Amino acid sequence: MISGILFINELGKVLISRIYRQDITISFIDQFKIKVLAAKKTTNPIKHVEGTTFCFRRIGSFFIVAVTKKNINAALVFEFLNTIIEIFKGYFGEKFNENTIRTNFSLVYELLDEIIDFGYPQTTETDILKLYITRENQRQTKKSKESVKQISIKATGVIGWRQEGLKYSRNEVFLDIVENLHFLVSNSGKFLKSDVFGEIIMKSRLSGMPDCKLGLNDKVLLDKRSGGKRTKMKNTRGGNTPIVIDDVTFHQCVKLSKFDTDRSISFVPPDGEFQCASYRVTENVKKPFKVIPIVKERGAITVDVKVTVISLFSENLFAKNTVVRIPTPPNTAECVITTQTGKAKYDPQINCIVWSIKRFQGKEELSLSAEVNLIRGKQSVWSRPPISLDFTIPSYTSSGLRVRYLKVVEKSITEVVKWVRYLCVSKGTFQVRI
Amino acid sequence: MSSSRVIKSFRQLLNESKEQSRRRVVIEQIISAMSLGVNLSPLFADMVKAAQTTDLVQKKMIYLYICKYAEENKELLILSTGTFQRDCQSQDPLVRGLSLRSMSSLMNKELVEYMAREIKKGLMDRSNYVRRIAVLATVKLFRVSPELVLGTEIEKKLYSMIAEVDPYVSINSVVALNEILASKGGISITQKIIIHLLKRFHEFTHWGQSIVLGLVANYAPQSEQECLQILNLLDNYLKSGNTSVILAVSKVFINLINDLPNLRNQIYDRIKNPLITLVSCTGNEMAYPVLKHIYLIATQLPNLFASEASRFFIKGSDPTYLQEIKIDILCEIVNKQNFKQIIFALASYVINSSLNEQISSYCIRAIGKIASQLSSYFDMVIDYLMEFIELDIPHIVEASMIILKDVIRLFPEQSLEIVLPELKRLSEIIHTEEAKVSLIWILGEFGEKIDEGPYILEKFVETFSEESSEKIKLELLTSVLKMFFKRPPESKKMLGVILHEATENSNEPDVIDRGLFYYRLISTDINKTKSIVLYEKEKFTRFTENDPLELFEILMDEFNTFSVVYKKPYDQFKRILHKNEEEEEEEEEDSSTDSSSFSEEELLDQIQQNVNDLDINQQNQNQQNSQEEQEIELVPKFNLEPSEFQNKWMNSSHNLNFDFELDEELDKESFEEILKENNFQVMASGLIQSTIKIFCYGKDISSNQIGLFQLLITGVNVKLNAKGTNPQFLKLFAEYIATVLTE
C-alpha cells in the first residue's frame, strides 16, 4: 500500500512528508528529486527507482507524490491523489498553493492522518471528514453530544456520502449537462471523429435523505418501455427523441443494480455539488457549426484563405465567445484579413489567424478571407494542421441528450425548485481539416 | 542563530503560555518548524508534558510530534505511555482513536505490552471509529512482534470482524488479515467471505471496493454458475466513476476467462468500452496506466481495438509519455482495414512541426514496425519514407534512413526496385551521420545492382580523410570491400585508396585496426576473404522479438499492478529492491540523512524572521544567474583536516547527485592520480566489493567555493554525490569532475 505522501516543490524542497509505513526512509525521497525533478526529459507520472515507485501529479508549482514499495494498482493511487486534491480544494479553496500548504501545516497533517491509515485510504468524503477535523468547529469549545453520536452512526451508515439531519428552508436542485465536443471533420464536412464527452453535474440543497430519480431520453430505456417493440417515437417533444449512449459511468451514490435492471438512475445525492454521471456518445451527434475552408497556395509566396462558418443550431440560440483559429504556414510574414463580423488578427506565436466572435447567433453565416504572404526562400513543408474552434453554446447539446424528469422523494420536503441547464463546449477540440 | 536558541525559546513559550488559544499557536509553530526540517527533538519531554491537554487540535499536533521524534528519544518514550493510556480511556471516541493510532504507529518494542492491551480493548470498543483504527493497529503490532497476533485470538477476532456492519471496519479487517498472513499467501478466501463481501459491495467506498475486487480476483469459483453470478453482479461496476474500480473489475473478468473460455470474446468486449472511455475522460496521469493496460491486451488481441484506432490518435496537448504509448498501441492494432488510416495519421505526426522531434522519430520507427507486420503494404511505407527524406529535416532524415535500411533488409527484392534508382540522389542530400551509415550499408550490400553504385561509394571515399565520424569510416571500409568482390574492375583503385588512408592516415584505433585486418585478410587468401565478406545471409521476417507468450500470461496474472506499467513481472523489479536495501544499509553512515535542501541555519533564520521562502529562492536564482558563465579552476594546494571535512560534509546546505559514465574502466589508483593531477584532494578511498569509493574535495580559485565529493564507481558507472554551500557551483564542480574523469 501507500508508504507515504509527499508534497515537493519544483526546487526539490519537501513541504510535507507524511510517512505511514516504515519501509521507506526520508533520505530516499532524494531519489525523487534526482530521477524526476532533475531529469532533463519529462518523465511519465510513474517512476520506478530501485524497488520503490513514485506516482506523482503536478499542481501549479509543486508535486504531490505517493511513494510505495508494493506492486499495487496504479489507478488507485492516482484516484487517491486526485481525491486528496479535491479535499484540499474544499478546505483551502480552488487555488491552493505552496503558501497555503505552508501556512496550514497542521491542518494538512490532520487531514492526511484521517484520510489514510497505515497506507490504506479511509474516509475521503469531505462531508464526513468535517466530523473528524475538529478545527472546523473551533468555535464550539466542547463538541455537542449530538456530533459525538454522529461520528459513531456516520461510519456505520450505508450512505457514507451524506450527513444525516440536513435541513433547508428552500429545497433546490440544479442540474448542469455539459458536453465537451471532440470532433475532427474532413474538409468536405465528413466526420472523421465524433466524440461527445458529457457530464451531468448536480448541485443540491435538499433536506433529509431524499431519493432522487433522474430520467433521460436514453434509447435503451425508451425501447424497453415500449415493450421491446420498435414503435416509432413521436417527435413532437425534443426530449423524446431517444439517443444511444455508448458508455456511461456514475457517481458512487447511484444504485447501479437498479440501472442495470430498468435503466433508471436513482440515488441519494451527496449534499452540495457532485458529478452524477459522465457519458460518451459517438453516434448521431449533431455538428453545431459547419466550416467551409478554402485554402489555395498561389505561387510560392502567397496563400489565399477563405473560411465560412455556418451555425446550424436554432436561431433562438447563440454561441458565446467563439474563436476560430486558422493555421498559416510557419514562414508567414503577414496576413491581410477581411471580415465583416468579429475581430481577427494574425498571431505569429501560434502561426494562426485568430478570429473571435463574441456572440454567434444561430442559423447565421459568417466568413473571413485573408491573403497570407510568406517569407520567400525558406522552403519548408507545411503540414496543414486543422482549423480549431472554441465556443460555448448554452441550452444546446450535440448528443441530443435531454433530462425528461427529476423526481425527488423525501417526506420532509414539500416543494423542490428544479433548474436544468445545458451547455455545449469546445476548447479547440472541434477541428476541421484544411 | 543556533538551533539550541530556537529550542530554548520554544520551550519558554510552551511553559509560559497558559491560555489554550496561545498554546495552540505555539504548538502550531513547532509543527511548522518541524516540517521545514529543523530538528526539535530536544523538546520531547516538554511536548509529552503538554500532551495532557483537553484541546483535541493540540493533542493531534503533539502526537504527530511524538511519532516523529520517538526514535531519538527512546528513553523518554515511556513517559508518554501514561498519556496514551489515559487518552485510550477518554469519553470522546476521537481521542481514543487518535491515541490508539499514534501509539501503535510508534511500533516500539518497549511499548508492545501496552500496545497489545489497548488494541484488544480497541477491537471491542463501542465506537466503530475506534474499532477500525484498532483493526489496522493489529498489523503494526504484528510488525513489532508477530507472535502476539499470529494464531492468537486477535487473528480469530479479525476474521469475525469482517462481518461487522460498519463498512470501514469490515474492509480494514480484510486488509489487516491479508497483510498479517502475507507469508501464507494472505487471507484465506472462502466462499462464505466472498459471498458476504459481494452482497454488501455497494456499501463500500471505492477504496474498499478495489480491495474486495482484489480478493475476488484471487478466488477460484467452485462452479460455472458461480462464475456467472460474479460476472453479472460486477458487470454494473464497469460503470463506476472510479478508474481503480473499473480496472479491478476488468481483472476479475479476465481471471474468470480461465473458467469460462467460451465467453472469452464477450468478456473482452464488455471491458473494452469502459477502458476506452477512461482514456479520454481522466487526467493525463490516470490515462497513462490505463493505456498501458490497453496496450497489454492489444498485444494479444489486436482485433479487439482495431475498429477504435481513432481513439488512440495523439493530441498536441498530450504529454510525450501518452503520445508514445498511444503510438505503441496503434502499432499493435493495425490491420488491413485500418492500415491506411493509421499510416496516414502517423505520417502526419512526423511532419507536424508542433510535435517534438522525439515523437516524429518515434512515429517513423512505428511506421517501419507496421511495414514488417503487414508486408503487403510495404511499398506505401517506402513511399512515405522517401518523402520524409526529401524534407531534409535532420532528425527525420536520420530516422527514415535507418528504417528504410531495415525495410530493405526485410523485403530486398521488392523494395530495391523503388529505392535503387534513387540512391544517387539520396547520397547528395543526406548529411547526418546515422543516415549516411545506413546509405553506405545499402550501397555495400546492393550497390552493385546499379551501374553507378561503385562511383557513389567512390565519392564518399574521396572525402574519407576529411570525415570526422568513426562510424562512417568503419561502414565505408566494409562496404568498399564488399563492392570490390562484386565489381572488382571499378572498385580496385578505391579499395587501395581507402586501405591506405585507413592504415596510414587515420587517428582512430578502430579504423586503423579494421583497415589492417582487411589488408592482411586479402593478402593471405583472397578467396577466403570473399567468403567471409559476402557470406550468405539468412532470411528473416521480423525484427522485434515478439514478447513471449509467457510474459504476457504473467503480466495478465499481475493485471492492475505496476507490473503492467513497467512491462515486467513483479519478480524482476522486486529483486532490485532487496539488493538495494543491502547497499543502502552500507551507505547509511556516509550519506547524510538530511533531506532538506536548505541548511538548518537558513531554516532557523527563516522561521525567526518569518521570511517568505519564495524570496530566498529568488535570491538563489539571481545568484545563479550571475555565476552561470564561470568556470572552475582549483587551488593547487588546499588542505582540509579530516575532522573539518567530516564537519563540512555533515553540515553542507546543498547536496547534488550526478551520475555519469566513463569511457573505460579504471582502477582505484588511476582515479586518485587523475584527481590529484587536477588539484582535487583525496580524503579517503576504499574498495567495497567491486565498487570503488572515493571521498575528495577541492576549492575554486576565483570564488573560494569549496566542494566535497563522494564518488562511487562500479565499472564505468559513476555515482557522484557533491556537497557544498552553493548549488550552482556544485553543478559546475560536478560537471568539472565528470569531464576530468572522462577525459
From TrEMBL, chain A:
<keyword id="KW-0813">Transport</keyword>
<dbReference type="Pfam" id="PF01217">
    <property type="entry name" value="Clat_adaptor_s"/>
</dbReference>
<dbReference type="InterPro" id="IPR001392">
    <property type="entry name" value="Clathrin_mu"/>
</dbReference>
<dbReference type="GO" id="GO:0006886">
    <property type="term" value="P:intracellular protein transport"/>
</dbReference>
<keyword id="KW-1003">Cell membrane</keyword>
<keyword id="KW-0472">Membrane</keyword>
<dbReference type="InterPro" id="IPR022775">
    <property type="entry name" value="AP_mu_sigma_su"/>
</dbReference>
<keyword id="KW-0168">Coated pit</keyword>
<dbReference type="InterPro" id="IPR050431">
    <property type="entry name" value="Adaptor_comp_med_subunit"/>
</dbReference>
<dbReference type="GO" id="GO:0005905">
    <property type="term" value="C:clathrin-coated pit"/>
</dbReference>
<dbReference type="InterPro" id="IPR043512">
    <property type="entry name" value="Mu2_C"/>
</dbReference>
<protein>
    <submittedName>
        <fullName>Ap-2 complex subunit mu</fullName>
    </submittedName>
</protein>
<comment type="similarity">
    <text>Belongs to the adaptor complexes medium subunit family.</text>
</comment>
<dbReference type="InterPro" id="IPR011012">
    <property type="entry name" value="Longin-like_dom_sf"/>
</dbReference>
<dbReference type="GO" id="GO:0030131">
    <property type="term" value="C:clathrin adaptor complex"/>
</dbReference>
<dbReference type="InterPro" id="IPR028565">
    <property type="entry name" value="MHD"/>
</dbReference>
<dbReference type="InterPro" id="IPR018240">
    <property type="entry name" value="Clathrin_mu_CS"/>
</dbReference>
<dbReference type="GO" id="GO:0005886">
    <property type="term" value="C:plasma membrane"/>
</dbReference>
<keyword id="KW-0653">Protein transport</keyword>
<dbReference type="Pfam" id="PF00928">
    <property type="entry name" value="Adap_comp_sub"/>
</dbReference>
<dbReference type="InterPro" id="IPR036168">
    <property type="entry name" value="AP2_Mu_C_sf"/>
</dbReference>
<feature type="domain" description="MHD">
    <location>
        <begin position="170"/>
        <end position="433"/>
    </location>
</feature>
TrEMBL record, chain B:
<dbReference type="GO" id="GO:0030276">
    <property type="term" value="F:clathrin binding"/>
</dbReference>
<keyword id="KW-0653">Protein transport</keyword>
<protein>
    <recommendedName>
        <fullName>AP complex subunit beta</fullName>
    </recommendedName>
</protein>
<dbReference type="Pfam" id="PF09066">
    <property type="entry name" value="B2-adapt-app_C"/>
</dbReference>
<keyword id="KW-0472">Membrane</keyword>
<feature type="compositionally biased region" description="Acidic residues">
    <location>
        <begin position="582"/>
        <end position="592"/>
    </location>
</feature>
<dbReference type="GO" id="GO:0030131">
    <property type="term" value="C:clathrin adaptor complex"/>
</dbReference>
<dbReference type="GO" id="GO:0012505">
    <property type="term" value="C:endomembrane system"/>
</dbReference>
<dbReference type="InterPro" id="IPR016024">
    <property type="entry name" value="ARM-type_fold"/>
</dbReference>
<dbReference type="InterPro" id="IPR016342">
    <property type="entry name" value="AP_complex_bsu_1_2_4"/>
</dbReference>
<dbReference type="InterPro" id="IPR026739">
    <property type="entry name" value="AP_beta"/>
</dbReference>
<dbReference type="GO" id="GO:0016192">
    <property type="term" value="P:vesicle-mediated transport"/>
</dbReference>
<feature type="domain" description="Beta-adaptin appendage C-terminal subdomain">
    <location>
        <begin position="634"/>
        <end position="742"/>
    </location>
</feature>
<dbReference type="InterPro" id="IPR012295">
    <property type="entry name" value="TBP_dom_sf"/>
</dbReference>
<dbReference type="InterPro" id="IPR015151">
    <property type="entry name" value="B-adaptin_app_sub_C"/>
</dbReference>
<dbReference type="GO" id="GO:0006886">
    <property type="term" value="P:intracellular protein transport"/>
</dbReference>
<dbReference type="InterPro" id="IPR011989">
    <property type="entry name" value="ARM-like"/>
</dbReference>
<dbReference type="InterPro" id="IPR002553">
    <property type="entry name" value="Clathrin/coatomer_adapt-like_N"/>
</dbReference>
<dbReference type="Pfam" id="PF01602">
    <property type="entry name" value="Adaptin_N"/>
</dbReference>
<comment type="similarity">
    <text>Belongs to the adaptor complexes large subunit family.</text>
</comment>
<feature type="region of interest" description="Disordered">
    <location>
        <begin position="579"/>
        <end position="601"/>
    </location>
</feature>
<keyword id="KW-0813">Transport</keyword>
